[in-house]
Amino acid sequence: MGRSRGGFSTKIHILVGALGNPVEFILTGGQEADVTQAEPLMQGYEAGAFIADKAFDSDAVVAAAKRQGAEAVIPSKKNRKVARDYDKHLYKERKKVEWFINLLKQYRRVATRYEKTARNLLGFVHVASIMILLR
């Protein structure tokens, strides 16, 4: 568990496949930036495109996606001096990540983060994911 402005918190970083099924989970403290977990999530997986939101906009993430042979579909942040083009039609597929997160939050134990250790929270995230897949 990490400390953030609101107290102790945890972030769940999720990689989903093309159908919206979970592929990988990484837990970090609440103060950890999303962009730091992009490369660990991508490693070991082949994909045609890596679709992410503005929080993942960095040259290092785009370069990592290209090294793996994937297209980086990430909109540029407002403060970027030279905006990068991205496939707006393909970016709409990012909704599958949001859908999965909303399904995951229906499980109260995961949504409220009752667990005090990362190991136990990650275990319940896996159980909730299995329950979602079995629907």
Descriptive notes:
- By secondary structure, the chain is α+β, with helices and mostly antiparallel strands.
- It has one domain (2-133): 2-Layer Sandwich (Nucleotidyltransferase, domain 5), CATH 3.30.420.
- Helices cover 36% and strands 20% of the residues.
- It is built from 6 helices and 5 strands.
- The protein has helices spanning 38-42, 59-67, 88-91, 95-104, 108-111, 118-133; strands spanning 2-4, 7-16, 22-29, 49-51, 71-73.
- The strands form 2 sheets. Strands 1-2-3 form a 3-stranded antiparallel sheet, covered by helices on one side. A two-stranded parallel ribbon has the order 4-5.
Largest sheet: 3 strands, antiparallel
- Radius of gyration equals 15 Å
pLDDT average, as an integer? Answer: 88
The overall number of domains is 1
Order of strands across the biggest sheet? 1-2-3
Our count of helices gives 6
Helix content: 25-40%
| Poorly predicted regions | none
CATH topology: Nucleotidyltransferase, domain 5
Give the CA-CA distance, first to last residue. Answer: 30 Å
Strand content: 15-25%
The CATH class label is Alpha Beta
CATH architecture: 2-Layer Sandwich
Q: Return the string of H and E elements.
A: EEEHEHEHHHH
Question: Got a strand count?
Answer: 5
Net shape: globular
SS class? alpha+beta
